Amino acid sequence: MDDPFREIGLYKLTKDHKVVRAEYPYDLEEVWAEGNRRVGRTMVGRYEVSTVFLPIDHSFGRGESHFFETMVFDTEGGDENLMLDQYMERCSTWAEAVAQHERVCAYVALKQGLPARYSAEAG
Question: What is the model's pLDDT at position 14?
């Protein structure tokens, strides 16, 4: 059976948070290791802001590589007014992901009328 990831490639993070291509055959436990993938996870009011490493380049060959994703999840439902649920941004490096997480947390806080004092380390 063909490996669908072999053609597009999988990536992993080094201990110093650099993105490198994983060698085939892939050690999926290493690629998907949760402790190595999470940049930040922060509750901001009723919303969870999560930033993680993506082992597949989500630019899919169109422009700058995207290996990190920040998403917002409404933990209570009924987000018709603020329109924050499922908000998403992507970026290329760990440092950008930390800044992106903090920026999105501040944005979500401000949209709810909360102080913008959140950081990736808070998660």
Answer: 84
